[in-house]
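From: lab user (bench 3)
To: helpdesk
Subject: output format question, protein + S-adenosyl-L-homocysteine

Hello, I'm new to running complex predictions and I'm not sure whether the block I got back is the full result or only part of it. Here's what I submitted:
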Amino acid sequence: MTKKDIRSLKPAELQTILSDLGQPSFRIRQIEEWVWKRSCKDFNEMSNLPAALRTQLAEMFSIHGIVVDDMQRSIDGTIKNAVKLHDGRVVESVLIPTDKRITACISSQVGCSLDCHFCATARLKRMRNLNAEEIYDQVVNIKNQAEQYFNRPLTNIVYMGMGEPLLNYQNVLGSIDKICGDSGLGMAPRRITVSTVGIAKMIRSLADDNPRTNLALSLHSARNEVRESIMPITKTNPIEMLRDAMNYWYSKTSSKVTFEYVIWKGINDQIEDIKALVKLCKQVPSKVNIIEYNPIGDDRFRMAEAEVIKAYQDALGEIGVVAKVRQSRGSDIDAACGQLANKNLANLQV
Ligand code: SAH
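Helpdesk reply: Thanks, we reran it on our side. This is the complete output you should expect:
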């Protein structure tokens, strides 16, 4: 029988086990610091625990880790990691350096179930959810790479890698708790952005739980018929439903949603498309990030002309919404938005 990972225990469960072993309550704090803050993977190294307890814990539990199986560097400095999980599955996480920030883009699921037509990850079936420690370990790895290769601290985290964070809700919240907690990395939640395809019910849950992170929504069209043709999730979560959920989010958090938006030729480059986005931005306190399209080898999708992008920006500017164009990073190594598909590692998928 495989041993349970000690980091998968809830604090109350660990507390019960420790008291059954006759240990004082401060041990829980010591153990949490070892396994989270210090990312210790060997009970024998936990030098402030009695030797007998270390042996007992090692008999009862394992501590899984992730292994960077492949690391690629882009000419723009971006680093893409293929990260192998304890069961051999592989996900990707990306370090994105800019002048002011070092951002970790991390995965929340192996593959994805959503089938957005323009996204390479959609071609991998969703194989499983990541657990909180697997998400957390991706952040630790990128934090170490930021220090090692850039001599700078990790400043931001975006849940924009593989998978849909809100379909792995509890584990994503668990990872945020450790990234921000004292026994983990102690980062400020406002440095974290959770990005969703738009699942109204879960946006409301996130608003209720309010982990104080930012929220981004991958919109790409504010017209149901257009959005549905490229993002099937729109059938069950139409724009009106998302609009109400985002207003609920704002009422609970006072934090504006960021719309992520790619503009494609012949798909969402008409005046009606611009008008629909302007209307939605008037209804929901929001910001807009226009993302460059990263080709994934599908001729249906081509980035719109510069004039169209300008027309979007001008129309949004008129209602006081700044829409910045986010330049693609790491596209030469398939590390940019929508390109994560374990391309070099297809043989490692088990
Ligand atoms: N499932 C979540 C997290 C993934 S984030 C979500 O949908 O938000 C990845 C972001 O990249 C999303 O905004 C997605 O819509 C966008 N994206 C997907 N494919 C892309 C592509 N080929 N070019 C540019 N952006 C893309």
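A quick orientation on your result: Residues 4-62 form a domain with the DNA polymerase; domain 1 fold (CATH 1.10.150.530). Let us know if anything else is unclear.
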